[in-house]
Write a structure and sequence with these properties.
Keywords: Cytoplasm. It is found in: Cytoplasm. This is BRCA1-associated ATM activator 1. By secondary structure, the chain is mainly α. Among the domains are: 149 residues; 180 residues, no CATH class; 152 residues, no CATH class; 60 residues, no CATH class. Helix content is 68%, strand content 1%. The chain is built from 50 helices and 4 strands. The longest helix is centred in the C-terminal third of the chain and has 24 residues.
Length: 956
């Protein structure tokens, strides 16, 4: 059986890597990584080729004479890992002991490259996938090499890969030879279990980094076993009596001078507690008695750190317990018949997390009733043991000088566990955040003698954490006034905060983001509809604040203020109509328009136009303000002259919104159609094209609606505006109306735009155009307007207005297509006649055209390659010099000629010959082939090494 092209290319690539003079280039690392991804995925069958085994043997022999470059050595080890992951291939390689030879070479050469060490660990991980490999690793004690990597000060990637290997090794060996994992664990824990360590709390004869790396490795092993529910590690903990030994190590440790070391030991002890709890489970469930015993041990550990006044370790243990509890909580069985009140363990822990925040509350006039309710709620949810420990913890926190820094760390820890919190815990944390925010907004001095503005200046990082925390909790858990009475004050707090002139730009952005989230979540529709005005409400200052912030010197503040205004305008349409008057009173519409046209920052201009999109949907804002601002002309100016694609994208979207919700003047409608047609055909930003196509989609919908279509179908009768009477919609009448729609769309160039978009280089544009055409085609086919064609044909070439290039090398090529400036200006009847003739030609002529196009394409490519860089630069420079004098001619080249168009008949004939779904699928497959196909990747690797003296392609 003949070799496939991919096999031949892979063999050539591997042969190139064996060249003694091989030197990696800048892209080789990327190529090698992608090649390994293919070989480990859909192309894994290529690993079975004999050439792969032979290549590994050759690279091992070459390695003995000369150490390869780190990139090639890393690739070779990764490649070897793929080969040896199958036990049959491993047995074949072991005939010559290739794996052992490579392992010895790495030891003797003492390679310092992190990428090579990581690849070596991955190669050994491939051996863990079968029994033969595991046996070889144990016999050769290669696992000690990986342990050495764990103890060395390596990169984070090497450390993680090494820890992962040790965990997998213990898991693989645990079910077959229980004694082997125990011996490996004893070797790992040996630095911690020395006699001197247990008695004096010191590790003599060992480097501190070696001890810390041992602790980190042990924690990784226990954490992985906790996730995988592996009973192997829990059995080893019991055999080695690790719980008692590590506890004695921590107790005998001098915590005042070894706080970091004590924190690592405490982390390990916490993992031991959570891992060993599995020893008392029944039917894969953890009994409440086992949970209670574990809680007691953890509380004793926390009490030990309180006695040592180690707040940092206390906080770290609490966060770690939250993460571990989340992993085992689903296996905990609750005794419903027990008369003893059950307290959730995560609730006890959240109280410990919040205490540093609550001890920082300094406002004198805190509402005693609200605070009393909050305190009573916490007491109801906590046990007596938790309360006693919390009081001891509070007494230490009060006397700390850095209590605000501790509160900041606490807030970050709350956000760290946000993804695993339930709604009850989130509400408790949210209320604590609100009481901390109050210190930053009131003018009266607090217990420390500082006013709110002074507090902002002194603790900006704490305020930033509060604002981020509140916004994140509201966004994730949709907290409203029903869960927390403190929510009622949030609008007032944010408004007072934004009035502070000393607020930094970063804090202003965070406060505006919090206001946006609050407006989105705290507006109950049943209450909003009862309000006709904002006077006297908690949000009556939103307009003046936004007006002030829209004049801010920092662009990110202006951009955030526009986002808030966009939300306000969005809910003003239906949900909260009182905002309409508020926006008009504060003259926000003209201000947004000024920002859209004149702001110096493109992001602000785009956000302003996006805000205008929301405003034009509100009838009152349009009638009272925006209708007289000539928005269509301004947006067309942006489409034609704006350099930033994100701004043009929003301008196209705004024109679509105006067309959908309002009516253009007849005098400007033709210009709008022309501008949107050009946006689809000639814009360089794909999102602009998609938004412009959405505009044309609305044009089609309006045309159909004007002819009586309702919800995609024609009713049996409709009212005719032209005849002013009810008309019976027969099949012939519907066909007449659809032909009228097609004629109008052809006149507006909509049909030509859709067919041109099908040939676009951006796949998203093709998707959108095909979707619109298929929707239109379904209506036309339903009423038998599309002619029947037996065999669909390719899309005819509808590219318009080709410009003859000035470079002499290209003229002949372009002339061979017959595409000159003069032919683009032919009368409509000549163009239509020639197009119809081409469409009706036979298959023989189509084959000739295809061969000619392929030949001409080769000529174009050859002309580009043969052209010198200097001539290309000269042409570019010449064009730049002529931009000012020939601006009108340049723009005219990209305009549609008024006499050239696609008629309705041509459009129907074109779509009848197209299979749009197949065409889109082929384009997607082609893109997938070019971007992620193995053959294409191998071609790139071969071409990158083909001519080392050739220059990279220049881009102009």
């Amino acid at each position: 059986m003949a070799d496939s092209p991919e096999q031949n290319k892979l063999e050539r690539v591997l042969h190139r890597f064996l060249d003694p003079n091989y030197k990696s280039s800048g892209n080789d690392d990327i190529y090698m990584e992608k090649l390994l991804t293919h070989l480990s995925g859909n192309s894994s069958h290529l690993i079975d080729l004999p050439v792969c085994k032979e290549w590994i043997q050759k690279i091992a022999e070459m390695w003995k004479e000369k150490t390869p470059e780190p990139s090639l050595a890393s690739f070779a080890l990764h490649f070897m890992g793929l080969v040896v992951s199958d036990w049959k291939r491993f047995e074949l390689l072991q005939v010559t002991d290739v794996v052992g030879q490579v392992s010895k070479l790495l030891k003797h050469q003492n390679c310092d490259s992190s990428s090579v060490k990581r690849a070596y660990v991955r190669m050994l991980s491939g051996l863990l996938k079968h029994d033969s490999g595991c046996k070889w690793i144990v016999q050769t004690e290669t696992w000690k090499d990986v342990l050495k990597f764990c103890h060395e000060n390596q990169s984070l990637y090497v450390l993680r890969e090494s820890q992962k290997f040790v965990v997998e090794l213990l898991d693989r060996l645990g079910g077959k030879e229980p004694e082997l994992p125990t011996s490996i664990m004893s070797h790992i824990f040996s630095p911690l279990l020395a006699k001197d360590s247990k008695i004096n709390g010191k590790v003599e004869g060992s480097e501190p980094q070696h001890v810390i790396s041992t602790l980190e490795l042990a924690c990784s092993i226990l954490e992985a076993s906790l996730t995988n529910l592996s009973p192997v590690v829990s059995d080893m903990i019991e055999k080695l009596n690790l719980e008692a030994l590590v506890w004695m190590l921590l107790v005998n440790l001098d915590g005042d001078h070894n706080e970091e070391y004590a924190g690592k030991v405490s982390k390990l002890l916490t993992f031991i507690y959570f891992t060993s709890v599995y020893r008392e489970k029944e039917e894969n469930k953890i009994l409440p008695t086992a949970v209670k015993a574990m809680e007691k041990k953890i509380f004793n550990l926390l009490a030990l750190h309180i006695s040592r006044r180690s707040i940092r370790n206390f906080m770290n243990i609490v966060v770690q317990c939250q993460l571990c509890w989340h992993k085992i909580s689903e296996f905990v069985s609750v005794n419903e018949q027990s008369e003893i009140k059950h307290f959730n363990f995560d609730t006890q822990l959240i109280v410990f997390q919040l205490l540093p925040m609550l001890t920082c509350v300094k406002t004198k006039n805190v509402d005693s009733e609200c605070l009393e309710l909050y305190t009573h709620k916490i007491f109801q949810l906590t046990s007596e043991e938790t309360q006693r420990l919390a009081y001891s913890y509070r007494d230490i926190l009060i006397v700390q000088e850095n209590k605000h820094q501790l509160a900041h760390q606490t807030m970050l820890s709350i956000l760290q566990i946000k993804s695993i919190m339930n709604r009850e815990l989130a509400v408790i944390a949210y209320q604590a955040f609100m009481y901390n925010l109050k210190d930053f907004v009131f003018e009266e001095p607090n217990a420390d003698g500082l006013t709110g503005p002074e507090f902002v200046i002194q603790y900006p990082e704490l305020l930033g954490a509060i604002l981020d925390g509140l916004a994140s909790l509201i966004r994730c858990f949709h907290i409203t006034w029903r869960e927390s009475v403190e929510t009622i004050c949030l609008f007032s707090f944010t408004q007072l905060l934004l009035k502070n002139a000393n607020l930094s730009p970063k804090l202003s952005v965070q406060a505006l983001q919090l206001m946006k989230v609050a407006i989105q979540n705290f507006m109950p529709p049943n209450l909003a509809l009862l309000m006709n005005t904002l006077q006297g409400s908690t949000i009556d200052q939103v307009g003046p604040i936004l007006q002030k912030r829209l004049h801010d010197v920092s662009w990110d503040v202006r951009d955030s203020a526009l986002e808030v205004l966009q939300v306000v305008t969005g809910i003003a349409e239906i949900k909260f109509p009182a905002f309409q008057e508020h926006v008009l009173e504060n003259e926000l519409c003209p201000l947004v328009l000024v920002l859209a046209m004149d702001d110096s920052e493109s992001y602000v201009r785009a956000s302003a136009i996006k805000c205008l999109c929301c405003m034009v949907r509100v009838q009152r804002l349009w009638t009272d303000c925006l209708a007289s601002e000539d928005l269509p002309s301004k947006m067309m100016t942006i489409l034609q002259g704006e350099s930033e694609g994100i701004v043009r994208r929003e301008a196209a979207a705004l024109l679509k919104e105006i067309y959908e919700h309002h009516k253009f003047l007849k005098a400007e409608l033709s210009n709008v159609f022309t501008a949107m047609a050009l946006a689809v055909v000639s814009d360089l930003h794909w999102e602009v094209k998609v938004n412009a196509l959405q505009f044309w989609e609305k044009v089609i919908e309006r045309q159909m609606s004007d002819q009586g279509m309702i919800d995609g179908v024609f009713p049996s009768v409709t009212f005719s505006k032209e005849n002013r009477k009810i008309v019976l919609l027969t099949e012939n009448e519907i066909k007449l109306r659809l032909n009228k729609v097609l004629g109008e769309l052809a006149r507006n160039r909509c049909l030509q735009v859709l067919l041109s978009a099908l040939q676009d280089h951006d796949l998203q544009v093709v998707y959108k155009a095909a979707d619109i055409i298929m929707t239109l085609n379904s209506v036309l086919m339903r009423h038998r307007l599309v002619p029947d064609v037996e065999t669909p044909k390719p899309l005819p070439d509808l590219v318009r207005n080709c410009v003859r290039p000035t470079n002499s090398n290209f003229r002949g090529v372009y002339d061979s297509f017959g595409c000159e400036v003069g032919t683009c200006l032919t009368p409509a009847n000549r163009v239509n006649q020639s197009r119809t003739t081409n469409m009706d030609s036979g298959e023989g002529e189509m084959g000739t055209v295809r061969s000619r196009l392929a030949s001409d394409s080769d000529q174009v490519i050859d002309a580009i390659i043969n052209e010198t860089d200097m001539n290309l630069l000269a042409d570019v420079y010449h064009d730049c010099l002529n931009v000012g004098g020939n601006a009108s001619s340049v723009s005219r080249n990209f305009n549609f000629d008024p006499e050239v168009n696609v008629s309705a008949e041509e459009f129907l004939l074109a779509i009848s010959k197209l299979n749009l779904s197949d065409m889109v699928t082929q384009k997607a497959d082609w893109l997938e082939h070019c971007s992620s196909n193995l053959g294409s990747l191998l071609d790139d690797i071969l071409s990158s090494q083909a001519d080392t003296e050739s220059n990279a392609m220049d881009c102009y």
